[in-house]
């Protein structure tokens, strides 16, 4: 990478007067932690939690999405999310590759917003580090969102269709949510609280995944009835990377290594731990066996639920949110799902509508209840806000949270449907039946494990009795 003329021969100039080295170092660390949640975190989680014959395909869908988002992000999508306003919910497309732009100080969104009485509602965020750091931080958020959507589509979506879906959905769905809530759009100006992604990442991922699953169609009947994890220890490893990586996910939200960042990380762990314990207890009581896969789901619902309010709620509220995130999504997934004809009809492979859609909506509503005024004042985008629990204008905040969620849900249902219909005109959304019967070996010509089993071609030169006798020791 070339060095800008202003910096050639003067390395000290790279440390500008406005640069806060501590904030920049933390933000780069937080960004990398979030990136590790996807690669290898979600790659390993998906590869382990699915049936053996889909391990390679599932992991590769995650890996491809991570790479594709990076290119789209720096070429056009970053500015659609955080650039100059095109519409109240969308920014103007443009590259984030210009070197002079990237070494400049970050400043987003572009405008502050004041109430009619002159009091500040939403403040302009001016991090003390380069714009390049923000591009990096926000890119890994966009990437993991697409990977979460993939969780609803594992085990049957055509890989070519997925290759088209990723840039289209990033462009026409993710950027709208990001600009509306974080980039200075109308939900930002209105004061909707989304500390670090409940409305930008998790509700869209759950709703879009469920919608896309409807259009793609279900897995084979055999796979739907019997889809055991091929490696639970891999799934636990992936879940562990998610949990620890979430320190960067929520801790990076304030764009500074400050008190708010510390509160966000602490609350994240409180909520997640409570969610796991509650979910495990419910499994033990109602199903007589504490499920490890259930515990993985609980970790995810806890992490998702706290995200909209991680740095603006107190510790006791995080504990309450953990109890609810370990019980309400458990109910919708383990009880309501089995009773609902709609939920049964749509084959959401990993239940993303529950772990991210329901948990994200729950977190957003609870943030509207529990957002503490003093903590809100530490988080610039929602200065002078308060939850309904604290009286005053808190009831209005709860209404804003619900209205914001409805916009995000509606946009994703419509736009995801349009994208799937358009892709279907070009290539099939679903793999042909012969590939669905075989899995990885037919789709990629590769297998996760060098063992013959369900979903592979029976090759008597490798698996037959005559071959076994031929290679057996005398």
UniProtKB/TrEMBL annotation:
Instruction: Please report the organism this UniProt entry assigns to the protein.
Output: Triticum aestivum
Protein's membrane topology: Multi-pass membrane protein
| Residues of the signal peptide | none
**Which terms under GO biological process does the entry name?**
ammonium transmembrane transport
A Pfam family annotated for this chain is Ammonium_transp
Q: Which NCBIfam families match?
A: amt
> Belongs to which family?
Belongs to the ammonia transporter channel (TC 1.A.11.2) family.
Q: Which residues form the Ammonium transporter AmtB-like domain?
A: 25-449
Q: What are the entry keywords?
A: Ammonia transport, Membrane, Transmembrane, Transmembrane helix, Transport
Q: What's the main place this protein lives?
A: membrane
Which Gene Ontology CC terms are recorded? Answer: plasma membrane
In terms of superkingdom, the source organism counts as Eukaryota
Which protein, by its recorded name, is this?
A: Ammonium transporter
Q: Name one GO molecular function term.
A: ammonium channel activity
Transmembrane parts of this sequence: 25-47, 59-78, 134-154, 161-187, 199-217, 229-249, 261-285, 292-310, 316-337, 349-371, 402-427
What this chain does, per the entry, is described as: Involved in ammonium transport.
* UniProt-annotated location(s): Cell membrane; Membrane
């Amino acid at each position: 990478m070339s060095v800008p003329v202003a910096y050639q021969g003067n390395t000290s100039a790279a440390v500008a007067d406005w640069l806060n080295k501590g904030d920049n170092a933390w933000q780069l660390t937080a960004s990398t932690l979030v990136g590790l949640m996807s690669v290898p975190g979600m790659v390993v989680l998906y590869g382990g939690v699915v049936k053996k014959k889909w391990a390679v395909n599932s992991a590769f869908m995650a890996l491809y999405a991570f790479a594709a988002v990076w290119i789209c992000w720096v070429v056009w999508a970053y500015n659609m999310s955080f650039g100059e306003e095109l519409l109240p919910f969308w920014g103007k497309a443009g590259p984030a590759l210009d070197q002079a732009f990237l070494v400049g100080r970050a400043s987003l969104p572009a405008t502050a917003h004041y109430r009619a009485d002159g009091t500040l509602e939403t403040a302009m965020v001016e991090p003390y580090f380069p714009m390049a750091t923000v591009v990096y931080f926000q890119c890994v958020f966009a990437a993991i969102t697409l990977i979460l959507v993939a969780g609803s589509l594992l085990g049957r979506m055509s890989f070519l269709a997925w290759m088209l879906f990723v840039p289209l959905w990033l462009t026409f769905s993710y950027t709208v949510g990001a600009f509306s809530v974080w980039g200075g759009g109308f939900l930002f100006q209105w004061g909707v609280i989304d500390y670090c992604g409940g409305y930008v990442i998790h509700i869209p991922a759950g709703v879009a995944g469920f919608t896309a699953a409807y259009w793609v169609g279900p897995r084979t009947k055999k796979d739907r009835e019997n889809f055991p994890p091929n490696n639970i220890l891999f799934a636990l490893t992936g879940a562990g990377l998610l949990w620890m990586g979430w320190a960067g996910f929520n801790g990076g939200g304030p764009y500074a290594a400050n008190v708010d960042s510390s509160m966000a990380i602490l609350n994240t762990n409180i909520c997640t731990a409570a969610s796991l314990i509650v979910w495990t207890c419910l499994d033990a009581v109602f199903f007589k066996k504490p499920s490890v896969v259930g515990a993985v789901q609980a970790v995810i619902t806890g992490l998702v639920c706290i995200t909209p309010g991680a740095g603006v709620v107190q510790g006791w509220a995080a504990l309450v949110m953990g109890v609810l995130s370990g019980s309400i999504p458990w109910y919708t997934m383990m009880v309501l799902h089995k009773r609902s004809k709609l939920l049964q009809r749509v084959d959401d492979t990993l239940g993303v509508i529950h772990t991210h859609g329901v948990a994200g909506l729950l977190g957003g509503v609870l943030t509207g209840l529990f957002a503490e005024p003093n903590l809100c004042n530490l988080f610039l985008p929602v200065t002078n806000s308060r939850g309904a629990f604290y009286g005053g204008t808190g009831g209005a905040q709860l209404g804003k949270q619900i209205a914001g969620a409805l916009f995000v849900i509606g946009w994703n249902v419509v736009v995801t449907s349009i994208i799937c219909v358009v892709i279907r005109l070009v290539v099939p959304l679903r793999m042909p039946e012969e590939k669905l019967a075989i899995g990885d070996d037919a789709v990629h010509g590769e297998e996760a494990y060098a063992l013959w089993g369900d979903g592979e071609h029976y090759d008597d030169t490798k698996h037959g009795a005559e071959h076994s006798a031929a290679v057996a020791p005398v």
